[in-house]
Specification:
Structural class: alpha+beta
Number of helices: 4
Number of strands: 9
CATH class: Alpha Beta
Distance between the termini: 36 Å
CATH architecture: Roll
Largest sheet: 7 strands, mixed
Mean pLDDT: 87
Strand content: 35-45%
Helix content: 25-40%
Strand order of the largest sheet: 1-4-5-6-7-2-3
Number of domains: 1
CATH topology: Nuclear Transport Factor 2, Chain: A
């Protein structure tokens, strides 16, 4: 994992980085109590791919329950972090097996590798905001499902997309 700071890291920035690491470790351990302990009561969690915004610890706990049910073995690997002031930017890779319902898709048993970027904001030693960017189609392609479009089956290709010249 690479850590970069903008200038010399203040104790507050170092604490934010420590808390970011703890947050992702707790998520990877599927430890709701430990994960929620990293969050402020008024946390705002936003998933850009789905447009979902979740506010408050109770709502975020329900979000984690759905996520961990769909992908109960998810592990988050931090690839790179950049920290400045109250912000920590993380490039992560989440690896998991689709073992529960997700977005209306029944479990497939497929192993999924998801590249993502998480932007975290901290105040008074707790996370107050997390915005997650990832390519939802990347995950759907790996899960491999059939959807309908205008009443016709639409197969989302699985595996890497290869282009020819």
């Amino acid at each position: 994992m690479v850590l970069e700071t903008m200038g010399s890291a203040s104790p507050a920035v170092e604490e934010n980085v420590r808390l970011a690491r703890e947050h992702f470790a707790a998520e990877s351990a599927h430890d709701a109590e430990r994960t929620l302990a990293t969050l402020a009561d008024d946390i705002m969690y936003r998933v850009v791919a789905s447009g979902e915004i979740v506010r408050g610890k109770a709502a975020v706990a329900k979000y984690y329950d759905v996520w961990w049910t769909a992908f109960p073995d998810v592990i988050i690997e931090i690839k790179r972090m950049v920290a400045a002031g109250e912000w920590v930017f993380c490039e992560n890779v989440a690896t998991a097996t689709h073992l529960g319902p997700w977005l209306g898709i029944p479990p497939t048993g497929t192993r999924v590798v998801q590249n993502l970027c998480a932007i975290l904001r901290f105040r008074d030693g707790l996370m107050i905001e997390e915005t997650v960017y990832y390519d939802q189609l990347e995950r759907i392609r790996q899960v491999g499902s059939v959807f309908t479009l205008d009443g016709r089956p639409l197969r989302i290709p699985t595996g890497p997309i290869v282009t020819t010249q």
